[in-house]
């Protein structure tokens, strides 16, 4: 089926060719490698097909679709002409789709290009026509700044919230609280030039080398602390991680458990319910989800609690989605003390949809409220005990957030 009716046979043939290519990409189980359309006609048809699928899914699937349809139509009228003018895939995604989706002001909404677009990112970021695009390093990054781990930086909403000791950023003296203003290619193959906005508002430029990234980070980690308490870090609410956490909770020490969610970006709703079911009594209120104004209450399932001892949660601005839902529910029921910094405020339930070129679209399909009826999206969850790292403490090999959690556990035992 032709995507666009062209005025000439030559254009029609180009559209048919691209339609077949796009249809094949949609049917493929895994995203196809990215391929730049060869002609202006192909590019225009490509852009139209991708844009139409993005707009249609947003219009039909968003959790407030009933009240926002006028806004979606307005967004389409503004951005479709720009989409048709985009000269390549990177331009379509990062100069048209990203601004359109960012304008919703919500988390869990975004479009990821097909595999292979990263070949264009240095040219796009250094181009004056690109304006100030959102930072992007490689496809498939699941949360803000994941790829900056190569230089030992943990980033949230553009702000440096943690550093890895021995990483390029720590060695260069990057401070907690600096904000990444811009990234461009460096002179060397492994170099990037970073502009950081300091607390004073002044910009500082640093060229950092990506050649020696920190060792790969395991998705979960267990540590026994000097106090005898058990610290469990897991970075996603996915079945392997939750299986592991539940197995550890069954043999947890009486001194207490610290769940480290500082880098947990969320995950499956079902896995969040499994964890909360092991920490709260059956039929405990988790919160509520809302679609087009209709509210559904969420409760833990029937089943035995796996762990009833002292419990603390570590949170940070990178704690998002299911991590925030879990933190708010556990505190609401008086089950856990939260330590660290305020969470991301990114708590919507979303679905991923394949785009015709093999890219993907994330659309929020449910809004989430905590057990007290408070919306988490945009507000986050504040800790009971505030604690944050500093460059000096990181260089000294200390973790002040974990230390504060241990102190809170000791206080609770007295």
UniProtKB/TrEMBL annotation:
Task: Cite the Tail specific protease domain residue spans from the record.
Answer: 200-388
Keyword terms: Signal
Domain of life per record: Bacteria
Instruction: Read off the InterPro entries from this record.
Output: ClpP/crotonase-like_dom_sf (IPR029045), PDZ_sf (IPR036034), Tail-specific_protease (IPR005151)
Any single Pfam family the record assigns to this protein: Peptidase_S41
Q: Which residues form the signal peptide?
A: 1-22
Please state what the protein is called.
Tail specific protease domain-containing protein
What is the species of this protein?
Answer: Brevundimonas guildfordensis
């Amino acid at each position: 089926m032709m995507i666009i009716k062209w005025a000439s046979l030559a254009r029609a043939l180009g559209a048919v060719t691209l339609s077949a290519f796009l249809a094949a990409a949609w049917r493929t189980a895994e995203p196809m490698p990215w391929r730049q359309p060869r002609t202006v006609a192909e590019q225009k048809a490509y852009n139209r097909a991708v844009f139409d699928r993005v707009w249609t899914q947003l219009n039909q699937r968003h959790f407030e679709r009933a009240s926002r349809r006028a806004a979606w139509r307005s967004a389409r009228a503004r951005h479709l002409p720009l989409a048709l003018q985009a000269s390549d895939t990177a331009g379509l995604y990062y100069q048209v789709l990203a601004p359109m989706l960012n304008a919703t002001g919500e988390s869990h909404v975004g479009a990821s290009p097909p595999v292979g677009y990263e070949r264009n990112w240095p040219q796009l970021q250094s181009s004056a026509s690109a304006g100030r695009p959102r930072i992007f390093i490689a496809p498939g990054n699941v949360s803000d700044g994941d790829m900056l781990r190569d230089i030992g930086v943990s980033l949230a909403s553009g702000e440096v919230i943690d550093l890895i000791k021995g990483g390029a950023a720590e060695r260069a003296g990057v401070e907690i609280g600096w904000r990444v203003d811009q990234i461009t290619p460096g002179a060397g193959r492994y170099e990037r030039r970073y502009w950081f906005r300091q607390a004073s508002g002044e910009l500082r430029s640093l060229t950092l080398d990506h050649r020696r990234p920190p060792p790969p980070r395991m998705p979960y980690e267990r540590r026994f602390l000097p106090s005898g308490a058990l610290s469990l870090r897991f970075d996603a609410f996915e079945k392997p991680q939750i299986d592991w956490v539940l197995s550890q909770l069954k043999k947890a020490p009486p001194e207490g458990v610290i769940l480290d969610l500082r880098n947990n970006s969320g995950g499956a709703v079902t896995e969040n319910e499994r964890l909360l079911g092991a920490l709260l009594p059956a039929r405990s209120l988790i919160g509520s989800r809302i679609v087009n104004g209709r509210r559904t209450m969420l409760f833990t399932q029937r089943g035995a609690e796996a762990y009833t001892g002292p419990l603390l949660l570590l949170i940070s601005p990178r704690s998002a989605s299911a991590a925030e839902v879990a933190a708010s529910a556990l505190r609401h029921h008086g089950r856990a003390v939260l330590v660290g910094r305020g969470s991301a405020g990114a708590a919507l339930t979303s679905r991923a949809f394949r785009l015709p070129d093999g890219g993907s679209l994330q659309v929020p399909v449910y809004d989430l409220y905590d057990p007290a009826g408070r919306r988490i999206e945009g507000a986050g969850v504040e800790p009971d005990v505030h604690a944050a790292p500093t460059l000096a403490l990181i260089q000294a090999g200390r973790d002040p957030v974990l230390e504060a959690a241990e102190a809170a556990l000791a206080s609770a035992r007295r």
